[in-house]
Amino acid sequence: MSNPTEMTTPPLVVKVGERLGLSWRPPIYSQVHSVWTRLRQGRRNRPRWVINLAVAVSLKEGNTALRKLTCLLCVAVIATAMQVWTHDLPAADTTTTKPNVLLILADDLGFSDLGCYGSEIATPNLDALAQSGIRFTQFYNCSRCCPSRASLLTGLYPHQAGVGSMSSDEGRPGYRGSLQPRCVTIAQVLKSAGYQTAMAGKWHVGDRQPPTDRGFDDFYGFVRGYAVDSWEPRMMVRLPENRPRRSYKSGQFFATDAITDHAMDFLANARNTKAPWFLYVAYQAPHFPLQSKAEDMQGYPAVYARGWDAIRQQRLARQKKLGLTAADTTLTPRGRIPNLDVSQRLGSRTADGGNPPWNSLPADRRADLAQRMAVYAGEVTGMDRNIGRLIAELRSHGEMQNTLIVFLSDNGACAEWEPFGFDLQPVAHPTPGTGINGGTPGAPNILHRGDALAGMGGPGSLMSYGSGWANACNTPWRLYKHYVHEGGISTPLIVHWPSGTARKGEFDRRAGHVIDLMATFVEAANATYPQTAGGNAILPMEGRSLLPALRGELAPPRTMFWEHEGNRAVRAGNWKLVALHGGPWELYDIETDRTELKNLARQHEDVVARLSDQWNAWAERCWVDRRP
Ligand SMILES: [Ca+2]
What we know:
By secondary structure, this protein is an alpha/beta fold. The chain has three domains: 4-92, no CATH class; 97-298 and 366-548, 3-Layer(aba) Sandwich (Alkaline Phosphatase, subunit A), CATH 3.40.720.10; 559-621, Arylsulfatase, C-terminal domain (2-Layer Sandwich), CATH 3.30.1120.10. The protein has helices at 12-19, 29-41, 46-61, 65-87, 94-97, 124-131, 145-154, 158-161, 186-192, 255-273, 300-304, 308-322, 340-346, 363-396, 466-473, 486-489, 516-524, 547-550, 605-621; strands at 100-106, 134-140, 196-202, 218-222, 237-239, 277-282, 403-409, 423-424, 462-463, 490-496, 506-513, 532-533, 536-537, 559-564, 567-572, 575-579, 586-589. The chain is globular.
C-alpha cells in the first residue's frame, strides 16, 4: 500500500480533510484504511479477522508472551473502538466496500510461459502483479478451452455444467456442449449481489446462449468458434446489439488490443453506476492462429533460434531459482507426438514417436520453427502489454487496492498435432460473433523461407507452433492440452488483492482447481450462491474459496477429478491417479514426482483401487463417460 491514491474509500478524517482542501494523510493512513475497510466488508468474519490480525502483529513483533498479549490487547481496543465508530455510520455501502473482480483468462498459455513462472518471454506487468500478489504452484484447469471455461464460470465440474467435451451437442447430459439450466455463472451470482458485469473476448461455452443470456450486462468478442483472426475485425460482435462499440481504421485492428479497449469501456460504464464491477477478460491469446504485432515480438527470433531443448533447460533452471519447482526436479524427456498420422503426412515423424532433437532438424526448418515460437512469444507479450493497460486504468481510478485480480490459463500449451505445426487459410467472409471453428488435423504445413519468414504472424498468416514448442511451454511437465497429466492441466495462477491479503510475492503450494473461482468470488463479494434460478434447481458449487490462502491459512486435504476425451485423473492429497484414453491407470506421488516419471501403480495397488473407485463414483455422480 505504498500509493495513497490507490485507496478506494477514505475514512472520515480524510474526507473532512479533503473537504477543507487538505491532501495530507497521516503516515498510518494505509493501515488504518485497511483495517477500516476490512471491518466494514466482513462484519460476519470480524472476530476471526481480528484474531488473525492480532496473531500476525504478535508474530511480527516478537515471540515473548508479554509482547503477544500487549499486541492482542491493543488490537482488541482499536478494533472495538472502530467497531463503535463504524456502527454509527450509515449502513455499509455495498457500492464501495465490495471488491471489484477482474478475471483474466489466457488461452492455451503453458505453465512456464510467464517470466514469473520461469519464462524468457517478457511479461513485466504480470510479473509485477505476482510480486505484489500470490502465485499458486499447483493450480489446475480442465485441459481444454470449453470444459475449463464452463467449469471456472460455474464452479462445477465441466460435465455437471454440460460441457465435458467441446461445443457440439453429443446428447448425453455431461456432453451437451453448452451451459445447462442446472448451473449459474459467476456473472449471474455477482449480478444478484449488486455487481455490474461485463465480458470481453472468447466465450466458447455454448453457441446459442451468448454471455448476455448468462448474467453479463455487456459483451464484446466472439460467441462461437475457438479463435478469431486477430487482424480481422469482422469476427467480433457487440452485445446487446446496438450498444456502442469502437470502430477501427483499416490495419488498426488487433484482437488483443480491441478486447482490452472494450473492457476499458465497460469499466467506464460500470463506474457511472457506482456499483462494484465484475469484468471477465478472456483473451484468445496465445491460442492459434499465432499472430503478433511486430513491436511485441522484437528480439524473439534470435532467442528461439536456440531451439526447444535449450529453452526447456533454461526455463527449468529459472523455475528452480525462483523457488517455483523443487531443486531436484528433473526435466521430462521430450514429449510424444500426439498425432502420428499427421506427423507422417507432414514429414515430422520420428523413430521413437517423440519430438525430434532440435539439432537434428535442417536449418530451414529450424528457422521456420523459431519464427513460429517468436510469434507466440510476441502474442504473450502483447497480452501482457494489454494487461498493463488495464492495470494502469485501475490505478488511475484508485481501484487497485480493492480489486480482486485473478489471472490464469484455460489449459496447457497446445501440441496440435505434431512438431512442425500447421497453417490455416484466412476466413473469406466472417460472420460477426463467429470465429474460426474448422478442424485442423488436415491443415497443411508451410515451410517458410527467406523473406516469407518476416511475414509470419502478420495479416494473412494463421499458424500453430506444434508439439516441440508446446513441450517447452509446459516445462517441466509431461504432455499438453487435451491430456490430464500435469502438462495439460497445470496453469499459472496469480491472485492480487491488496485489501484482501498481506501476502506479497509468495508462492502458495496448495492444490487448487478452476472450480474454486466461484467459491472465491462468492465469499469476496459476500454474495449468495443460489439453490434455484429461473425455476431450475442449481447444483451446489464444488470448489473451495481461495480466500483462506490469502489469509495465510493452511489448506486441508482435498480430492479433485478430471475427464476429457477419455483421459482421466484423480488427485487425492499428494497421490495422483492418471490415465490416457484407453491406457491403464498410472500412480504418482506429486509431492516428490510431479514430473510423473515414476509410476507407482504396481507398488501401491491398494491406492490405485481406492482412487479408481473414487473416480468411478465421481463419474457416476457428474455424468462423466466411463470409457475403457
Ligand atoms: Ca484453450
